[in-house]
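[audit] Reproducing an earlier prediction to check determinism. Same input, same settings, fresh worker. If the tokens differ from the archived copy the diff job will pick it up downstream; this log only records the rerun itself.
[audit] input (391 residues):
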Amino acid sequence: MEEFEEMYLFENSYRNLIRRRHRRRHRRVWVNEIFMYRKQLGEYHHLFEELKLQPMKFFEYFRMCFSTFQYILNAVEPLITKQNTNYRECISPTERLAITLRYLATGHSFRSLAFSFRVSNSAVGIIVRETCKAIFDSLVSHHMPMPTDEMIHQNVELYWSKWGFPNCIGSLDGKHIRMKCPSNSGSMYYNYKKFFSIVLQAVASPDYKFLFIEVGAYGQQSDGGTFASSAMYRQFENGYLNISKCLPNTNTLLPLVLLADEAYPLKRYIMRPYPRRNLGEQETIYNERLSNARVVIECAFGIITQKWRILTKCIETTTENAETIVKCICLLHNIVVAKEGQPRHNHSTDQRRNLGQRSNYASRGQNRSTTEAYNIREAFKHFFSNENMVQ
């Protein structure tokens, strides 16, 4: 009996030894050999210092000047600094920001950037998410604050002097951001352009900055429907920025307004074009003035799409992370404009979207307007017609 027990224990011990050796043989290494040479061969370590010596190339690579890069780094460094461990040295805040900006600027996949910068695929995803959030959280109060009365009146004056539309706070529009289909979402994110998306809805100031943004609405919603379900809509409906001002050189008192296309409802605080059927001369003049001023938001969308190429690709991440990325891009746009001046952009009418096509996707129920809103639009129409006669 004892001999049998000894044999059993021996065989059991032997099997356990074989299992341990097998597990040890297949255990994943702590750092892949490719990533061990990050400091010698990684894109950041052999390129960043050279780029600093060539300002044009630095701008081409990061889509901003070195001084702007350093300004952002100083703001986010406390939020993205990690501690070294006994087993590995952490990725520096500067490299984290470089990886993030390169992702936004090129739209390259996490896997592609992982090989370029010699960090793991999962690490790139974490770095982009954390850094985008840190940029937005640390700088939004400086570069996208809630507008003060002074800021509002400055915008009104600039819209009038630069774009020829009085009493205007900003121009309003929405942009579909392409993304992969979220799990268990059905057709909620599938838009009329036949791809999955979330919606960026924004108001732009006359100098192409974003005054308000809201990200994350379902792609299947129209612009008017997206606005009607937004926090921005509730703010304006509850009287936010309910300010009136006389039109230039007149005693006509009108509220400050947003400018939008036919996809949006006519409201006391939103002016949209007259329907293009049977337009008279006065309505045509009004539509032209509104269209010329409203192009600012289209230019702002065009600028961020041209600069941050991730917006031309499908964002391969979760909905929450995609929203963080888009908000960060809008804020980066404001930062670059503030630090480096207004970008050059062609706002010719050829680049505008067709208003008639946009209106096909607006819900009629959401576009019901009050008599007050119609009267306000009529007052703007008569102002432009009288001004045109004087000229």
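[audit] rerun output stored. Observation attached for the diff report: Confidence is low (pLDDT under 50) at residues 348-367.
[audit] end
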